[in-house]
Design a protein that fits this description.
The chain has 435 residues and is α/β, with parallel strands linked by helices. It folds into 3 domains: 70 residues, Thrombin, subunit H; 257 residues, Rossmann fold; 85 residues, no CATH class. Helix content is 33%, strand content 25%. Strands 9, 13, 14, 15, 16, 17, 18, 19, 20 and 21 form a 10-stranded mixed sheet that branches. Strands 1-7-4-5-6-3-2 form a 7-stranded antiparallel sheet, with no helix packed on it. The protein has a two-stranded antiparallel sheet with strand order 8-10. Strand 2 and strand 3 form a beta hairpin. Helix 6 packs across helix 7 and helix 9 runs antiparallel to helix 10. It starts with a strand and ends in an 8-residue tail after the last helix.
Length: 435
Protein backbone atom coordinates (compact mmCIF):
# COMPACT_ATOMS: atom_id res chain seq x y z
CA UNK A 1 0.00 0.00 0.00
CA UNK A 2 1.53 3.32 -1.10
CA UNK A 3 1.46 6.15 1.44
CA UNK A 4 -0.37 9.43 0.95
CA UNK A 5 1.35 12.81 0.60
CA UNK A 6 -0.40 16.04 1.49
CA UNK A 7 2.35 18.69 1.40
CA UNK A 8 1.18 20.46 -1.78
CA UNK A 9 3.40 23.51 -2.10
CA UNK A 10 2.22 24.98 -5.39
CA UNK A 11 -0.68 24.93 -7.85
CA UNK A 12 0.05 26.59 -11.22
CA UNK A 13 -2.20 26.08 -14.19
CA UNK A 14 -2.84 22.33 -14.38
CA UNK A 15 0.38 21.50 -12.51
CA UNK A 16 0.53 20.57 -8.83
CA UNK A 17 3.82 20.44 -6.89
CA UNK A 18 4.07 18.24 -3.80
CA UNK A 19 6.85 17.11 -1.48
CA UNK A 20 7.28 13.33 -1.92
CA UNK A 21 9.94 10.62 -2.05
CA UNK A 22 10.47 7.33 -3.91
CA UNK A 23 8.57 8.57 -6.94
CA UNK A 24 9.43 7.88 -10.60
CA UNK A 25 9.21 10.05 -13.71
CA UNK A 26 5.92 9.55 -15.65
CA UNK A 27 4.43 7.75 -12.62
CA UNK A 28 0.68 8.10 -12.16
CA UNK A 29 -0.97 9.48 -9.04
CA UNK A 30 -4.47 9.93 -7.64
CA UNK A 31 -5.41 13.26 -6.05
CA UNK A 32 -8.37 13.12 -3.65
CA UNK A 33 -10.16 16.39 -4.39
CA UNK A 34 -13.53 17.78 -3.37
CA UNK A 35 -14.78 16.69 -6.81
CA UNK A 36 -13.58 13.16 -6.24
CA UNK A 37 -10.43 11.30 -7.31
CA UNK A 38 -8.41 12.99 -10.07
CA UNK A 39 -5.69 11.32 -12.14
CA UNK A 40 -2.28 13.01 -12.54
CA UNK A 41 1.13 12.18 -13.95
CA UNK A 42 4.64 13.06 -12.78
CA UNK A 43 6.29 15.43 -15.23
CA UNK A 44 9.22 16.73 -13.16
CA UNK A 45 11.43 15.57 -10.27
CA UNK A 46 13.70 17.93 -8.38
CA UNK A 47 14.99 16.61 -5.02
CA UNK A 48 11.82 15.97 -3.02
CA UNK A 49 9.74 18.37 -5.14
CA UNK A 50 7.45 16.40 -7.46
CA UNK A 51 5.42 18.16 -10.16
CA UNK A 52 2.28 16.49 -11.49
CA UNK A 53 0.19 17.33 -14.52
CA UNK A 54 -3.47 16.91 -13.52
CA UNK A 55 -5.51 15.35 -16.32
CA UNK A 56 -8.81 17.03 -15.53
CA UNK A 57 -7.28 20.35 -14.48
CA UNK A 58 -6.65 21.75 -11.04
CA UNK A 59 -10.08 23.26 -10.46
CA UNK A 60 -11.21 21.98 -7.08
CA UNK A 61 -7.67 20.98 -6.00
CA UNK A 62 -6.49 22.52 -2.73
CA UNK A 63 -3.19 22.47 -0.86
CA UNK A 64 -4.68 20.16 1.77
CA UNK A 65 -5.64 17.36 -0.66
CA UNK A 66 -4.00 13.96 -0.37
CA UNK A 67 -1.98 12.44 -3.21
CA UNK A 68 -1.33 8.73 -3.64
CA UNK A 69 1.27 7.55 -6.17
CA UNK A 70 0.41 4.35 -8.05
CA UNK A 71 3.96 3.06 -8.59
CA UNK A 72 3.54 2.68 -12.35
CA UNK A 73 3.52 4.75 -15.51
CA UNK A 74 0.57 5.07 -17.86
CA UNK A 75 -0.51 1.76 -19.34
CA UNK A 76 -3.02 0.75 -21.98
CA UNK A 77 -4.97 -2.52 -22.23
CA UNK A 78 -4.03 -4.60 -25.25
CA UNK A 79 -6.53 -6.96 -26.85
CA UNK A 80 -8.31 -7.50 -30.17
CA UNK A 81 -11.34 -5.94 -28.46
CA UNK A 82 -9.70 -2.55 -29.09
CA UNK A 83 -10.56 -2.86 -32.79
CA UNK A 84 -13.46 -0.69 -33.87
CA UNK A 85 -13.25 1.41 -30.70
CA UNK A 86 -12.68 5.11 -30.02
CA UNK A 87 -10.83 6.32 -26.90
CA UNK A 88 -9.69 9.64 -25.47
CA UNK A 89 -6.13 10.60 -24.58
CA UNK A 90 -6.41 8.82 -21.24
CA UNK A 91 -7.38 5.55 -22.88
CA UNK A 92 -10.99 5.86 -21.69
CA UNK A 93 -13.86 5.07 -24.11
CA UNK A 94 -15.17 7.99 -26.15
CA UNK A 95 -17.77 5.92 -27.99
CA UNK A 96 -20.12 5.38 -25.03
CA UNK A 97 -19.27 1.69 -24.89
CA UNK A 98 -17.84 -0.25 -21.93
CA UNK A 99 -14.19 0.04 -20.96
CA UNK A 100 -11.85 -2.62 -22.34
CA UNK A 101 -10.58 -5.15 -19.80
CA UNK A 102 -7.33 -6.91 -20.69
CA UNK A 103 -3.67 -7.22 -19.79
CA UNK A 104 -1.94 -3.87 -20.02
CA UNK A 105 1.28 -2.73 -21.70
CA UNK A 106 3.42 0.29 -20.84
CA UNK A 107 3.31 3.33 -23.07
CA UNK A 108 6.35 5.42 -23.93
CA UNK A 109 8.70 2.43 -24.01
CA UNK A 110 12.05 2.75 -25.85
CA UNK A 111 12.25 2.30 -29.61
CA UNK A 112 13.24 -1.10 -30.97
CA UNK A 113 16.96 -1.83 -31.21
CA UNK A 114 18.03 -1.26 -34.84
CA UNK A 115 19.64 -4.71 -35.04
CA UNK A 116 16.17 -6.23 -34.58
CA UNK A 117 14.74 -4.35 -37.54
CA UNK A 118 14.51 -5.45 -41.16
CA UNK A 119 15.58 -3.15 -43.96
CA UNK A 120 12.36 -1.65 -45.39
CA UNK A 121 11.69 -3.17 -48.79
CA UNK A 122 7.90 -3.41 -49.28
CA UNK A 123 5.80 -0.71 -50.92
CA UNK A 124 2.44 0.32 -49.46
CA UNK A 125 -0.06 1.07 -52.25
CA UNK A 126 -2.34 4.02 -51.48
CA UNK A 127 -4.14 4.63 -54.79
CA UNK A 128 -2.74 8.20 -54.81
CA UNK A 129 -0.47 8.64 -57.88
CA UNK A 130 1.60 11.44 -56.36
CA UNK A 131 2.57 9.02 -53.59
CA UNK A 132 2.66 5.66 -55.35
CA UNK A 133 4.44 6.79 -58.52
CA UNK A 134 6.64 9.66 -57.38
CA UNK A 135 7.27 9.21 -53.64
CA UNK A 136 6.37 5.67 -52.69
CA UNK A 137 5.35 4.96 -49.10
CA UNK A 138 7.39 2.04 -47.74
CA UNK A 139 6.42 -0.36 -44.98
CA UNK A 140 7.89 0.74 -41.60
CA UNK A 141 8.69 4.21 -42.95
CA UNK A 142 8.17 7.36 -40.88
CA UNK A 143 6.93 10.29 -42.96
CA UNK A 144 5.37 13.66 -42.10
CA UNK A 145 2.86 15.60 -44.18
CA UNK A 146 3.91 19.26 -44.08
CA UNK A 147 0.97 21.57 -44.65
CA UNK A 148 -0.84 24.69 -43.40
CA UNK A 149 -4.21 25.32 -41.81
CA UNK A 150 -7.05 25.05 -44.30
CA UNK A 151 -5.42 22.40 -46.49
CA UNK A 152 -7.17 18.99 -46.74
CA UNK A 153 -4.46 17.12 -44.80
CA UNK A 154 -6.95 15.24 -42.61
CA UNK A 155 -8.86 14.16 -45.71
CA UNK A 156 -5.58 12.93 -47.24
CA UNK A 157 -4.69 11.08 -44.04
CA UNK A 158 -8.13 9.45 -43.90
CA UNK A 159 -7.86 8.38 -47.53
CA UNK A 160 -4.46 6.78 -46.96
CA UNK A 161 -5.90 4.92 -43.98
CA UNK A 162 -8.85 3.80 -46.07
CA UNK A 163 -6.87 2.55 -49.08
CA UNK A 164 -3.44 1.54 -47.79
CA UNK A 165 -2.58 -2.13 -47.51
CA UNK A 166 -2.60 -2.55 -43.73
CA UNK A 167 -4.03 -5.07 -41.28
CA UNK A 168 -4.53 -2.55 -38.47
CA UNK A 169 -5.12 1.22 -38.72
CA UNK A 170 -4.51 3.35 -35.63
CA UNK A 171 -5.50 7.01 -35.67
CA UNK A 172 -4.16 9.48 -33.13
CA UNK A 173 -5.88 12.86 -33.12
CA UNK A 174 -4.36 15.78 -31.19
CA UNK A 175 -6.24 19.05 -30.79
CA UNK A 176 -8.86 17.88 -33.30
CA UNK A 177 -12.09 19.72 -33.85
CA UNK A 178 -15.08 17.52 -33.12
CA UNK A 179 -16.23 17.58 -36.76
CA UNK A 180 -12.76 16.43 -37.90
CA UNK A 181 -13.01 13.45 -35.55
CA UNK A 182 -16.49 12.63 -36.88
CA UNK A 183 -15.19 12.91 -40.46
CA UNK A 184 -12.47 10.34 -39.74
CA UNK A 185 -14.94 8.00 -38.07
CA UNK A 186 -17.54 8.32 -40.84
CA UNK A 187 -14.92 7.87 -43.59
CA UNK A 188 -13.59 4.68 -42.00
CA UNK A 189 -17.10 3.37 -41.34
CA UNK A 190 -18.32 4.03 -44.88
CA UNK A 191 -15.11 2.55 -46.30
CA UNK A 192 -15.51 -0.64 -44.30
CA UNK A 193 -12.27 -0.35 -42.32
CA UNK A 194 -13.64 0.79 -38.96
CA UNK A 195 -13.65 -2.81 -37.74
CA UNK A 196 -9.85 -2.98 -38.04
CA UNK A 197 -9.24 0.56 -36.80
CA UNK A 198 -8.52 2.01 -33.36
CA UNK A 199 -8.85 5.72 -32.58
CA UNK A 200 -7.30 7.72 -29.75
CA UNK A 201 -8.80 11.20 -30.01
CA UNK A 202 -7.85 14.35 -28.13
CA UNK A 203 -9.95 17.41 -28.92
CA UNK A 204 -9.08 21.03 -28.27
CA UNK A 205 -11.43 20.99 -25.26
CA UNK A 206 -9.67 18.07 -23.55
CA UNK A 207 -6.85 18.37 -20.95
CA UNK A 208 -3.49 19.24 -22.49
CA UNK A 209 -1.73 16.27 -20.89
CA UNK A 210 -3.96 13.90 -22.87
CA UNK A 211 -2.59 15.45 -26.06
CA UNK A 212 0.88 14.30 -25.03
CA UNK A 213 -0.32 10.76 -24.33
CA UNK A 214 -2.07 10.16 -27.66
CA UNK A 215 1.03 9.28 -29.76
CA UNK A 216 2.36 6.98 -27.04
CA UNK A 217 -0.98 5.18 -26.74
CA UNK A 218 -1.16 4.68 -30.51
CA UNK A 219 2.42 3.47 -30.80
CA UNK A 220 2.28 1.15 -27.78
CA UNK A 221 -0.80 -0.62 -29.15
CA UNK A 222 0.58 -0.62 -32.71
CA UNK A 223 3.85 -2.16 -31.58
CA UNK A 224 2.04 -5.04 -29.87
CA UNK A 225 0.01 -5.79 -32.99
CA UNK A 226 3.21 -5.64 -35.08
CA UNK A 227 4.82 -8.19 -32.76
CA UNK A 228 1.88 -10.47 -33.56
CA UNK A 229 2.79 -10.28 -37.24
CA UNK A 230 0.34 -7.56 -38.29
CA UNK A 231 1.01 -4.75 -40.74
CA UNK A 232 0.13 -1.64 -38.72
CA UNK A 233 -0.40 1.87 -40.10
CA UNK A 234 -0.33 4.66 -37.50
CA UNK A 235 -1.80 8.02 -38.55
CA UNK A 236 -1.12 11.05 -36.33
CA UNK A 237 -2.58 14.54 -36.67
CA UNK A 238 -1.36 17.10 -35.73
CA UNK A 239 2.19 16.86 -34.36
CA UNK A 240 2.36 20.65 -34.09
CA UNK A 241 -0.49 20.45 -31.56
CA UNK A 242 1.60 17.86 -29.70
CA UNK A 243 4.60 20.21 -29.70
CA UNK A 244 2.43 23.11 -28.56
CA UNK A 245 1.25 20.98 -25.62
CA UNK A 246 4.91 20.36 -24.72
CA UNK A 247 5.49 24.09 -24.93
CA UNK A 248 2.52 24.90 -22.68
CA UNK A 249 3.71 22.54 -19.96
CA UNK A 250 7.30 23.78 -20.26
CA UNK A 251 6.09 27.35 -19.72
CA UNK A 252 4.06 26.29 -16.68
CA UNK A 253 7.15 24.55 -15.30
CA UNK A 254 9.16 27.75 -15.89
CA UNK A 255 11.71 25.92 -18.01
CA UNK A 256 14.21 27.99 -19.95
CA UNK A 257 12.68 28.27 -23.43
CA UNK A 258 14.48 27.41 -26.63
CA UNK A 259 13.63 28.49 -30.20
CA UNK A 260 10.26 30.33 -30.26
CA UNK A 261 9.45 29.23 -26.73
CA UNK A 262 9.55 25.47 -27.38
CA UNK A 263 11.37 23.28 -24.85
CA UNK A 264 15.01 22.48 -25.50
CA UNK A 265 14.29 18.75 -25.78
CA UNK A 266 11.75 19.15 -28.63
CA UNK A 267 13.91 17.10 -31.01
CA UNK A 268 14.19 14.26 -28.47
CA UNK A 269 10.47 14.29 -27.76
CA UNK A 270 9.62 14.06 -31.47
CA UNK A 271 12.28 11.42 -32.16
CA UNK A 272 11.01 9.20 -29.33
CA UNK A 273 7.73 8.89 -31.22
CA UNK A 274 8.88 8.77 -34.84
CA UNK A 275 11.60 6.20 -34.15
CA UNK A 276 8.94 3.69 -33.05
CA UNK A 277 8.29 2.94 -36.73
CA UNK A 278 9.71 -0.53 -37.28
CA UNK A 279 9.76 -3.63 -39.47
CA UNK A 280 10.35 -6.58 -37.15
CA UNK A 281 12.44 -9.49 -38.30
CA UNK A 282 10.09 -12.52 -38.47
CA UNK A 283 7.10 -10.45 -37.30
CA UNK A 284 5.01 -7.52 -38.54
CA UNK A 285 5.66 -3.85 -39.09
CA UNK A 286 4.52 -0.40 -38.00
CA UNK A 287 4.43 2.49 -40.48
CA UNK A 288 4.01 6.06 -39.27
CA UNK A 289 2.41 8.90 -41.25
CA UNK A 290 1.95 12.16 -39.33
CA UNK A 291 0.61 15.62 -40.17
CA UNK A 292 2.75 18.61 -39.19
CA UNK A 293 1.12 21.98 -39.79
CA UNK A 294 3.55 24.84 -40.41
CA UNK A 295 2.51 28.21 -38.92
CA UNK A 296 2.78 30.78 -41.69
CA UNK A 297 3.89 28.03 -44.12
CA UNK A 298 7.32 28.40 -42.54
CA UNK A 299 9.40 25.25 -42.93
CA UNK A 300 12.04 26.74 -40.61
CA UNK A 301 9.52 26.69 -37.73
CA UNK A 302 10.98 24.51 -34.92
CA UNK A 303 8.46 21.68 -35.33
CA UNK A 304 8.90 20.94 -39.09
CA UNK A 305 12.57 21.87 -38.86
CA UNK A 306 13.28 19.28 -36.15
CA UNK A 307 10.98 16.75 -37.81
CA UNK A 308 12.94 16.90 -41.05
CA UNK A 309 16.08 15.66 -39.30
CA UNK A 310 14.25 12.63 -37.87
CA UNK A 311 12.01 11.33 -40.63
CA UNK A 312 12.73 9.66 -43.95
CA UNK A 313 11.45 12.42 -46.19
CA UNK A 314 8.22 14.42 -46.24
CA UNK A 315 5.12 15.20 -48.28
CA UNK A 316 4.29 18.86 -48.91
CA UNK A 317 0.55 19.49 -49.25
CA UNK A 318 -0.12 22.87 -50.84
CA UNK A 319 -3.12 24.20 -52.77
CA UNK A 320 -4.88 20.90 -52.31
CA UNK A 321 -2.10 18.92 -53.99
CA UNK A 322 1.00 17.00 -53.02
CA UNK A 323 3.81 19.12 -54.38
CA UNK A 324 6.24 17.09 -56.54
CA UNK A 325 9.15 19.41 -55.67
CA UNK A 326 10.13 19.34 -52.04
CA UNK A 327 8.22 16.16 -51.35
CA UNK A 328 10.57 13.25 -50.84
CA UNK A 329 10.48 9.61 -49.82
CA UNK A 330 14.06 8.64 -49.06
CA UNK A 331 13.16 4.95 -49.15
CA UNK A 332 11.41 4.95 -52.54
CA UNK A 333 14.52 3.59 -54.25
CA UNK A 334 14.16 0.49 -52.07
CA UNK A 335 10.89 -0.45 -53.78
CA UNK A 336 10.23 1.34 -57.07
CA UNK A 337 12.80 -0.76 -58.92
CA UNK A 338 10.79 -3.86 -57.99
CA UNK A 339 7.36 -2.65 -59.16
CA UNK A 340 7.60 -2.31 -62.94
CA UNK A 341 10.59 -1.69 -65.17
CA UNK A 342 9.28 1.72 -66.29
CA UNK A 343 8.54 3.07 -62.79
CA UNK A 344 11.76 5.01 -62.28
CA UNK A 345 11.84 6.23 -65.87
CA UNK A 346 8.30 7.60 -65.61
CA UNK A 347 9.04 9.15 -62.21
CA UNK A 348 12.13 10.99 -63.47
CA UNK A 349 10.81 11.87 -66.93
CA UNK A 350 7.44 13.24 -65.84
CA UNK A 351 8.89 15.40 -63.08
CA UNK A 352 11.61 16.82 -65.33
CA UNK A 353 9.04 17.81 -67.95
CA UNK A 354 6.75 19.30 -65.30
CA UNK A 355 9.62 21.38 -63.91
CA UNK A 356 10.29 22.68 -67.43
CA UNK A 357 6.56 23.40 -67.80
CA UNK A 358 6.63 25.62 -64.70
CA UNK A 359 9.51 27.62 -66.16
CA UNK A 360 7.55 27.98 -69.41
CA UNK A 361 4.49 29.24 -67.54
CA UNK A 362 6.64 31.92 -65.95
CA UNK A 363 7.85 32.96 -69.41
CA UNK A 364 4.26 33.12 -70.64
CA UNK A 365 3.14 35.20 -67.65
CA UNK A 366 5.99 37.63 -68.33
CA UNK A 367 4.79 38.12 -71.90
CA UNK A 368 7.43 36.15 -73.80
CA UNK A 369 6.50 34.67 -77.16
CA UNK A 370 5.58 30.98 -76.95
CA UNK A 371 7.12 28.38 -79.26
CA UNK A 372 5.57 25.11 -80.37
CA UNK A 373 7.65 23.32 -77.71
CA UNK A 374 6.37 25.75 -75.07
CA UNK A 375 2.78 25.00 -76.08
CA UNK A 376 3.44 21.28 -75.70
CA UNK A 377 4.87 21.80 -72.23
CA UNK A 378 1.90 23.90 -71.09
CA UNK A 379 -0.55 21.32 -72.41
CA UNK A 380 1.39 18.60 -70.61
CA UNK A 381 1.41 20.55 -67.33
CA UNK A 382 -2.35 21.05 -67.43
CA UNK A 383 -3.00 17.35 -68.11
CA UNK A 384 -0.48 16.24 -65.48
CA UNK A 385 -2.12 18.39 -62.81
CA UNK A 386 -5.62 17.28 -63.75
CA UNK A 387 -5.05 13.54 -64.17
CA UNK A 388 -2.15 12.83 -61.79
CA UNK A 389 -1.69 15.56 -59.19
CA UNK A 390 -5.36 16.10 -58.32
CA UNK A 391 -6.07 14.34 -55.01
CA UNK A 392 -9.43 13.08 -56.30
CA UNK A 393 -7.54 10.78 -58.70
CA UNK A 394 -7.75 7.25 -57.32
CA UNK A 395 -6.00 4.57 -59.37
CA UNK A 396 -3.69 1.61 -58.64
CA UNK A 397 0.03 2.00 -59.31
CA UNK A 398 0.18 0.21 -62.67
CA UNK A 399 -2.86 2.12 -63.95
CA UNK A 400 -1.22 5.36 -62.82
CA UNK A 401 1.94 4.47 -64.75
CA UNK A 402 -0.14 3.74 -67.86
CA UNK A 403 -1.94 7.06 -67.38
CA UNK A 404 1.41 8.87 -67.32
CA UNK A 405 2.36 7.22 -70.60
CA UNK A 406 -0.94 8.34 -72.16
CA UNK A 407 -0.35 11.95 -71.07
CA UNK A 408 3.18 11.88 -72.51
CA UNK A 409 1.99 10.40 -75.80
CA UNK A 410 -0.77 13.01 -76.04
CA UNK A 411 1.71 15.87 -75.74
CA UNK A 412 5.11 14.80 -77.07
CA UNK A 413 6.96 12.73 -79.60
CA UNK A 414 8.80 9.81 -77.96
CA UNK A 415 12.24 11.36 -78.43
CA UNK A 416 11.10 14.57 -76.68
CA UNK A 417 10.42 12.83 -73.36
CA UNK A 418 14.07 12.16 -72.52
CA UNK A 419 13.20 8.56 -71.58
CA UNK A 420 15.62 5.91 -72.86
CA UNK A 421 14.64 4.08 -76.01
CA UNK A 422 14.45 0.56 -74.54
CA UNK A 423 11.72 1.69 -72.12
CA UNK A 424 9.91 3.69 -74.82
CA UNK A 425 9.80 0.73 -77.19
CA UNK A 426 8.18 -1.42 -74.51
CA UNK A 427 5.67 1.00 -73.01
CA UNK A 428 4.92 3.85 -75.46
CA UNK A 429 1.17 3.74 -76.28
CA UNK A 430 1.76 4.37 -79.99
CA UNK A 431 4.19 2.85 -82.46
CA UNK A 432 7.56 4.57 -82.46
CA UNK A 433 8.20 6.61 -85.55
CA UNK A 434 11.40 6.04 -87.41
CA UNK A 435 13.98 8.51 -86.23
Amino acid sequence: MRKYYDEITRIAGNVVTVKATNVGYDELAIIDTTRGPSLAQVIRLEADEVSLQVFAGTQGVSTGDKIRFLGQAMQVPFTDDLLGRVFNGSGEPRDNRPAVSADTVDIGSPAVNPVRRRMPDTMIDTGIPMIDVFNSLVESQKLPIFSVAGEPYNELLARVGLQAEADIIILGGMGLRHDDYLKFRDTFEEGGVLGRSIMFIHTAADPVVECLLVPDLCLAVGEQFALQGKKVLVLLTDMTAFADALKEIAITMEQIPSNRGYPGDLYTQLARRYEKAVDFDEAGSMTLLAVTTMPGDDVTHPVPDNTGYITEGQFYLRNGRIEPFGSLSRLKQQVNGKTRDDHRAIMDGCLQLYATCRETREKRDMGFEMSEWDDKLIKYGDLFEEKIMDLTVNVPLFDALDLCWEILADCFEPVETGIRRSILEKHWPKELKDE
